[in-house]
Amino acid sequence: MERDLVVRAQHGDHDAFTTLVAPCLARLYPAAGLILRSQDRAEDAVQDALVRAWVGLKGLRDPDRFEAWLYRLVVNACYRHARRDAGRRVVEVAVLPVDGLVTPDGGQALAMRDQLERGFRRLPPDQRAVLVLHFFLDLPDAEVADALGVPLGTMKSRLHRATVALRAALEADDRRAILAEGHPA
Fold first, then answer.
1. What's residue 37's pLDDT?
2. Where are the domains of the chain?
3. Which CATH superfamily does the domain covering 2-182 fall into?
4. What is the average pLDDT score of the chain?
């Protein structure tokens, strides 16, 4: 079914392209948001990738690899946006919905999520990309490598380095919090 949609889209069928891309959007936008750390920039990156996908679809040799190819386009778009915005400081405030009182377990989960967010923010986009593709999108290693456009061994070493860097960022935040507690402001 997907192969047929890709072939039809390659021949200019807009409806086939829309049908092909629609199920991927629910994963592409959050993934781009995690890589770029900004929903507005993520939306721009995904839109750029979709335009490139439509324009370059005729060049896709293996229709069965459409989804991995689309992930690669999104990751590359995220890299372009990150490079373009490297000198800018983006401030984004997210308003989280509150559903009643926060339970102790909910508070702990929120604190853990906040800690991961801070650690993740310290990583460069290429490290965030490999972590997002592997852990958030839960893609198999071969598809992550394909989406990043690198050999499998390179992807695995990048994943290892990104995991080590995230762990180091989290430990640095823990040390900073401990020092702050010992020295009241």
1. 86
2. 2-182
3. PhyR, sigma-like (SL) domain (1.20.140.160)
4. 84
